[in-house]
Amino acid sequence: MHKLLDGDSEAVRRWFAAGMLANVTTVLALADVDEPWARTLAGT
């Protein structure tokens, strides 16, 4: 991954963070939670 992102360590961290956030929001079904914090995390 580091090579694909031109050796940019910060980009690698952001890529993994975005992937983990997507997994967590899906597993917790945050799209179905009507709370401001859940909408923020789910991006809705």
Structural description of this entry:
With 44 residues, this protein is mainly alpha-helical. The chain has one domain (9-42). It is 59% helix and 0% strand. It is built from 2 helices and no strands. It has helices at 9-27, 36-42. The chain is elongated and about 40 Å long.
Keywords, please?
44 residues; mainly alpha; 2 helices; 59% helix; elongated
Brief write-up:
The protein has 2 helices and no strands. The protein has helices at residues 9-27, 36-42.
Residue ranges: pLDDT <50 for 5 or more in a row? none
Tally of DSSP helical segments:
2
Helices and strands, in order, run as: HH
Number of domains: 1
In total, the number of strands is: 0
Distance between the termini: 28 Å
Strand content is: under 5%
In terms of topology, how is this protein built?
Layout: H1 9-27, H2 36-42
